[in-house]
Amino acid sequence: MATLPNPLPSLATSGVQLPSGALVDATIDGPWHEPLLWVADAPASPGTWAAMRAAGRPVGLLPVPIDGGRSDQWPADWDLIPDDTSYPGDHDADEVLGTYWAECAPDELDAADSEYPGLAPTPSAEGSGSPDDLAAEIADECTGPDGWFPGSRAALVPARRSADIPAAIGWSGPMNYEDDVARLCAVLRSWEDRFDIRVVLLGFDTLTVSVGRPPTTPAEARAVAAEHFAFCPDNIEQNPPYDLDVYAEKMVLNQETWSFWWD
């Protein structure tokens, strides 16, 4: 995977002020030749994402809260696979989603819905503010004892853009669906361009993004729901009533967060 120089090996002498934490180089095949991410030792709190972004971005690091889940499983035990991860820029989002759609839609959707509709258009309505400001707000909702993911910890990842964070660490969360997460990151890049998304939480097999420019009409939401199905079929297949139109209305229309889970 093509990357910028990794600032993590020199983090201790970079002048970046961070709380107590550790560098992670553990992969499914043993230690990687350089650290993949830095993870704090203690739970994050509201304000942590913004502080981490301010500290890390000047040296090429981007923030993401990490969720250990019910099993208290942190990145050192995530079976990261950087050696099997390509570069997101080498993939086309439309082609990736079209391939996924062809593999899943004929068996899972009604015949009327089985033709791949292509990429959804950029929403007609502008976002209400800065995508990074919204990401900070959503990250604050995720963290802290009263957050959606209490106990989640701050992490810093060497990545060019938020959409590349999963690929930068060789994340294996979607392994049962896609074993090269860079292909999914190509879609995240496209969503970053069209919907102003930011990756605001990673778990062992879960991903949450903030959405700075969400769909605001039923037609726009339905088009995006089709992309979500191709990207992560479990979002529809594991959620009654297993219907794209209902999913579009409840989970996409005007929603400032999108969450995904791969079984």
Q: How much strand?
A: 15-25%
> How many angstroms does the end-to-end distance come to?
26 Å
- For the secondary structure, the number of strands is 9
Low-confidence stretches: none
Task: Please list the strands of the largest sheet in the order they lie side by side.
Answer: 1-4-6-5
Largest sheet: 4 strands, antiparallel
The coarse silhouette is: globular
What would the average pLDDT be, to the nearest integer? Answer: 93
Explain what the structure shows.
The chain has 263 residues and is of the alpha+beta class. The protein has helices at residues 48-56, 93-108, 131-142, 165-168, 181-195, 218-231, 234-237, 244-252, and strands spanning 21-24, 26-27, 30-31, 37-43, 61-66, 153-158, 197-202, 206-211, 257-261. It has a 4-stranded antiparallel sheet with strand order 1-4-6-5, with helices on one face. Strand 7 and strand 8 form a beta hairpin. Helix 2 (93-108) crosses helix 5 (181-195), helix 2 (93-108) packs across helix 6 and helix 6 (218-231) crosses helix 8 (244-252). The protein is globular, with a radius of gyration of 18 Å. The two termini are 26 Å apart.
What's the quick description here?
With 263 residues, the chain is an alpha+beta fold. It contains eight helices and nine strands.
List the helices and strands and how they pair.
Blueprint: E1 21-24, E2 26-27, E3 30-31, E4 37-43, H1 48-56, E5 61-66, H2 93-108, H3 131-142, E6 153-158, H4 165-168, H5 181-195, E7 197-202, E8 206-211, H6 218-231, H7 234-237, H8 244-252, E9 257-261
Helix pairs in contact: 2-5, 2-6, 6-8
